[in-house]
Amino acid sequence: MVIKIDALDTLFFRDGKPFERGEEAWADGLFPPYPSVIYGALRSAYFSEHPSELGKANSEGDPTRDFRITNFYLAVDDQPYYPLPLDLVKIKGAKKGDFPIPLAPKKDEEVLSSCLTPELLYYQGTEPVEAIEDGLLAIYELTNYLEGKTGQLTYQPISDFLTAEPKVGISRKSTTHNADEGMLYRVGMMRFSGKKKFKKNPQTISLVVAFEGPNIARRGFLRLGGEGKAAVYKQTTEVPVSTDNFVLKDNRFKLLFITPAIFDNGWLPSWIGKNSLTGNKNGVSLKLITAALGKFQSVGGFDMVKKQPKPMYRAVPAGSVYYFEVQDAANQTEEISQALIKAFHGKPLSDSGEMRKQGFGIGLLGRLP
Question: Which of 90, 145, 192, 266 could form a disulfide with 7 if both were Cys (CB 3.0 to 4.6 A apart)?
């Protein structure tokens, strides 16, 4: 089933930073939310439609344990948008609208680095470059990127599609209901609408999630994020990212993560050897060549049953790119390409089965330029 979620009010999605009463006064938000937020909303929606089964929650017979998120993306006027790959950078100080520049893997024996991978990612020019913060690619540009056409991609910052509406509040004493001294706080609420330049042609900003498991109503309401704000959803059609033109180039390919990925060994998937950087996936022997990674993200949550915070995980951020090489060059065949598509494309690839169910680590295959 695929649903499109539209906000009815401002929303706030927490990052992993502590926000304890009396200790922190500023709560930053993040967007898009972690897929676990949507996973929890789906479970709540199911139980709201089947209240007689609420007693099964978090038990062996919990029907919502069968939910599995298989895709998650932002839609602007029903046009899918995905995180900008982190192997795309910009000239330092470049204005918005300039084309991003691709990095390329390269061996450099003169560079001393603690990096485990045999190659590093380089910009081929001479100007200083910098990372692009919170960029988005429309699906047609993402398709070009995955097909190795990185010459003139256009991207947009997430801020084009959101309006910040911070909320300031203060805690009150439980006895007198007067303002409690030192308890002023600020929460980074966001409204799903573009900035002033879009007012003549308002854009509809939505979250689209594809999932398997128990059915829920074709349309209804969800509670999302901090304060349980209301959102409305309805069934829609998924727009998949095609692999029709996926081929290996020089026996290599790249893997882009469109949702944060959680691995047992930090940034390194558990099926890849820590020292050899080799592994096997769906019968194909692979070696990790290099990777473009952002700063880790802290993923946690709150356990409503135990009334305590859930364990905190460090996640590889969405937009991270891993470069692989097929080890058996003699078998560079269509069968290998199909095996890679089956193993990676559109699949949640986090190490933990529970995190895969929640949609962490969804990957897309791409060819090198």
Answer: 192
